[in-house]
Amino acid sequence: MIKRLIIYLRQLLKELEEIDIPEPVNDYGRGEMYTPKWGIIVPHEKSKRGARTHSSVRPPVYEYDYGLKLGDFLSDKLPYKTRDTGGVYQAAKDLITLGCDATIEPHLNAYNGKAHGYEILVLAGDSLSKEYALNIISSYEAKYPERRKRQGDGIKEIKKGDRGYYNLKNSKNAGAKIAILTELFFIDNPDEYMEPIEMSNFLREVLIVD
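-> structure tokens emitted (210 positions)
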């Protein structure tokens, strides 16, 4: 009886070894129903407003002002915070307190008035943020096929020392599961410039699910 039991257990163990059991995946409880709750971090500060529109544009529009307008246009659905008090970390922390679990910092590029292209920055190795950044890139490409990505798939994975690293790192440290920094056009290129209301409509389409 014992001998038969041992033979049975050995056979059972052998069968179990042949079963391919997948590694557990941490999907942050998303499942099929997961929808991130986004919050906007206005880029730069009131005292340092960032890049500005082309010199031919009067009055000039700075990144900070542009971000405030986006926040105002989307405030019925998405909360926004500035970096004026406490920087990115505090802004992200405030958004987390409001129930957000994802942050977007809508920066705009600038160079020589002629440069063009778009990209989204995420921390290297942050697969969850990259997944949602790719969704935004895909939607932007479909809506504006005449515009071009700055590189590859439009996603720039950044490491310590790269531009934007501390912005994203501070958002993650504050508790955001998803943190992205967008640069969807060059603010100093009149041919690329997009009015805040148009950009807010695009963000409404890709970030808000009623």
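The longest strand covers residues 178-186.
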